[in-house]
Amino acid sequence: MNQRRPRRMQGFGARLDGEVTVRRFVAPQRSTTATIRSGDLLEPIAAVASRVGVDAATVEGLVDAQGLAIFGKLQAGAEVFLAGAVVESDANDGSNDDDGSGGFVLQPPDASVAWAYDPRMLLHVPPVDRIPETPYRLQRAVECLKSTPRANELLPEELLCPEEKEAATTPRARLDGANKTAMSEVVPPLCWIPPRLATLEEIALCHDVSRYRDFVEHGTALTPPLKTDVYCNDMTSSMATRLAVGAVIDAARCALAGATSFAFCLVRPPGHHCTVDTPGGFCLANNVAIAARQLLKDWRNDNKGRGDGTLSASPRIAIVDLDVHHGEGTQSFVEEEPPPLCDANSVSPLLYFSLHRYDHGTFYPADPRGDTAYVGRYRNVCNVAVNTAANDPACCEKVMSDAVFERVVDDVLLPRLRRFCPDVVLLSLGFDAAYGDPLGRMAVEGGFAYAVRALKQFCRSQPQQQKVRELHAGLVVVLEGGYLPVAVAQGVTAVAHALRYPANDADVVRYAARQVPKTWQDLRRRAARQQHEMKQQQQQQAEEQLHGVEGGVKKTEALCERASASPTQSTEGAVLLPEDDVLLERHERWCDRLISRVLSTHEEANGPP
């Protein structure tokens, strides 16, 4: 179990007295409340364990939702988990399942997942501390995966710690290109995509050869001009970029060929902002766009020399971008791809779908082609541009949340995918829409697992249109942004469970549960802090004025005047937020308007289905 850094509870607003919710970490989950004083439990942890059905002799301590140990003080109102074995008499008891899992139990894996990762990608290090795209984002995610209670079922041996490898019993397979071996008929195997460096020929599928030649062949840093949000080092940046591109290409090939339908690429640097000759947004090469073009190139090579009557149909590739930022780089490559046949009924083999924060074109990258109304020359672009106001107390319901993710996935994304009929879905998944991210500043928590669970179910119901064999569509998840390491780690872990386990698995249900936007509570804390500061300032001003008042009567009168005025003045300028149930109603209505606007805009731009 990994140790997390002690959390600092100092500062205005930290409540160390009150109650916390304690849940049993393993299913079937039970919960109780426990009183804390000065951030510590008032009762022995064994007493809490008995109430949630954990064997006191096996208690490992308090952990967070990802199984990471909690050190430091607890805050009133927090939700924590108690790690330990379930009491035998309670092992099959589904009572008190109020954790969002609805009484669901842990299920065996139902999907084979291929993994791609190489620690050499961690060598790409920013030159200064203020850059948020750091190796720790990915390092923390891998550590979190290894520390999960189901790591042996979740991860291939290549990702496990040495001691975990010895205990691992889950069948595994090794992928080399599109081949697999030793597949189990009982438990879907875990697969490993061997790391490799992408070639110049592969990177040149999307990027200018003259700009990238020395970068690829000699490892020299990309030469200026570079945007201010990009850093590039000699040797290490080239290696990390080539490893990332190679991993995504191989995972996409495996998914399309049916070697394994699902894959997770833990890669960096991200790629979706990078255009043909301009790296941007911490991106040096467009990993997903290169992989998509490589699949099309493979198809063209397979059909060389064939007559018109024997040509196989082009694979259809959907790129779904759920990073908080619009992927203007990926979109630029997709919208250039024409239909394979020059007739009115043909469509481009590529589709780009993006859900992103837009704020009327002011949010990064501030590209007007990220607007909802923009569909591209071949109508293969589908943007859901969200105009937010999460920091404005007057309309803070306008925030990207779990509800927004659910509605967009169910009402916009899946219907569009059903019309497109993809053979493979490449998911550019950034976790910068997560609550707490310093760049995104949104409120998504369970939405990531919800989206992946829904895409997995869609792909399993979607047969590949161009294959003779009965194969369903593949899904490749590729890490993009996300700049709060703990949120990236939690998101990666949640998505990994959604890929590996069935939709009704207790962990998957818990990870995908809709949460109330925590940004609202942040606004309340900010308002309380401002009110507190205003009151202190007014009291100080009153004392300064009273200091010059002479005479007991005058001083008493002045004190009375200040006392009667202070309640009104202390709240002047402070905005009181409604309760969450009121904000949730507003949020739902805003979501309704958002979806209605998006659907009508898309229909007007593309024509009816």
UniProtKB/TrEMBL annotation:
Compartments where found: Nucleus
Enzyme class: hydrolase
GO cellular component terms attached to this protein's record: histone deacetylase complex
EC number(s) stated in the UniProt entry for this protein: 3.5.1.98
Alphabetized UniProt keyword annotations: Chromatin regulator, Hydrolase, Nucleus, Repressor, Transcription, Transcription regulation
One GO biological process term: epigenetic regulation of gene expression
Keyword set includes Signal: no
Hydrolase as UniProt keyword: yes
Gene Ontology MF terms in the entry: histone deacetylase activity, hydrolytic mechanism
Domain called Histone deacetylase: residue spans: 182-498
UniProt family annotation: Belongs to the histone deacetylase family. HD type 2 subfamily.
The protein's name in its UniProt record: histone deacetylase
